[in-house]
Amino acid sequence: MDTTAFTNNLQKYAQLIIKSGCNLKAGQELFISISTECVEFARLLTAEAYAQGARHVTVKFHDEKIARLHYDNCPLEVFESVPEWAALLNNSMAREGAAILSVVSSDPYAMVGIDQAKPVASAVASHAACKEFYDALDLGRVVWCIVGAAAPAWARVVFPAVPVEQAVAQLWDAIFAATRVTAPDPVLAWEAHRASFNERKQWLNEQQFDALQYRNSRGTHLTIGLNARGIWQGGGDMTIDGTAFFPNMPTEELFTTPDRLRAEGVVYSSLPLVHNGALIEDFSLRFKEGRVVDCQAAVGQDVLEAIFKVDQNAARLGEVALIPYTSPIRQSGILFYSTLFDENASCHLAVGQGFPDCLEGGQTKSEDELLAAGVNKSATHVDFMIGTPDLQITGITASGEHIPVFKDGEWAF
Ligand code: ZN
């Protein structure tokens, strides 16, 4: 490995995350959630945040092996509540307007075989206890950003054929490529990337589609209702006070929140899905009146079923995202076993929480108003990939006109 080039890229990556991802302001608090596997990178991010004027940086470390020990040893009831300090930490960070940065580096197999009721209970408890925190994220009150960092257990799964040290180096290089860190000026490259979404976003918003119809040879045959006054987003987000940020790096998607009550038909997965530290492969979901009524997986049936048990809205759609089959991440040929990356390789859907900013005036609406307008509300949000080279997507207008949106896995317009 060329260590100078690596050090240089890592520095550029940290700068990019703080500057473009978090758009950190002078005097602002930064709240980083990161694995103990990435201590060095946590230090680099902290140093970079101070270089860019942070008032204070709070780093919350987590450790997957210890988390696994909790799952293996604690009874279910332990996961049904959140320690008071943890809720206080999250809620106070949101209240103070901290930028919320999450660094993911998970071992895709860390939690294989655990009782799925435990992470489900944990998600529900966390959403109840940290309501102020999650509302701040969902309603555009704070900046939030999710990025990846290479770690040995993850790298081993992505690049199984090479020694682990080399796998980590290759995974870092793949992360740098996917996040445009290798561009001469990554911050400028991300500004150009943001602008590149505008034309298609505008076209989609002008169509005011009432529904999207999905078809492919795998058996997908699904119609999804879209909300009146729905908005397509992509290429970054903005807080209600006008701070531009990137919730995910990388990001290649144009997305909206569909009508939580209207989805009919069957959809087949096109990529494996890692959820709660376990793999789900070759699965299909059947929707009726907007709700998943049947699910089948060749691998990970229990993990798949657990997704829909989080709460009463976990089986309804929160997101519809369009990504051409030839996206740069797909073309890299790398399966990352991480939704942050893999969702950018394929058209996808997500069940669970919807996006209030994908509805006109949504961020100032109450919970009940959002639900009534079709925006789903749930303690979970799970993306799953459905894009194939033969995927056809047709937009249906309120007057019944059919307009091609995707033809053979690519934009049709
Ligand atoms: Zn998405």
Averaged pLDDT = 96
Q: Unreliable runs, pLDDT <50, ≥5 residues?
A: none
Globally, the shape reads globular
How many domain units?
Answer: 2
Biggest sheet features: 9 strands, antiparallel
Cofactors, ions, other ligands: zinc ion
For the terminal residues, how far apart are their CA atoms?
43 Å
Count of helices? 14
| Structural class by sheet pairing and helices | alpha+beta
Helix amount: 25-40%
β-strand number: 20
Radius of gyration: 20 Å
**What percent of residues are in strands?**
25-35%
Written overview of the protein:
By secondary structure, this protein is an alpha+beta fold. It has 2 domains: 3-188, Thermophilic metalloprotease (M29) (Thermophilic metalloprotease-like, 3-Layer(aba) Sandwich), CATH 3.40.1830; 197-411, no CATH class. It contains 14 helices and 20 strands. The chain has helices at 3-21, 39-51, 64-73, 84-95, 117-129, 131-138, 152-158, 164-178, 186-196, 198-207, 301-307, 328-331, 339-342, 367-373; strands at 29-35, 56-62, 99-104, 144-148, 211-215, 221-226, 233-234, 237-238, 244-245, 254-256, 258-268, 273-275, 278-288, 291-299, 317-322, 348-352, 381-385, 392-396, 402-407, 410-411. The strands form 4 sheets. Strands 5, 6, 11, 12, 13, 14, 18, 19 and 20 form a 9-stranded antiparallel β-sheet that branches. The chain has a 5-stranded antiparallel β-sheet with strand order 7-10-15-16-17, covered by helices on one side. α1 packs across α2, α1 packs across α8 (164-178) and α4 runs parallel beside α6 (131-138). It is globular, with a radius of gyration of 20 Å. The mean pLDDT is 96. The structure holds zinc ion.
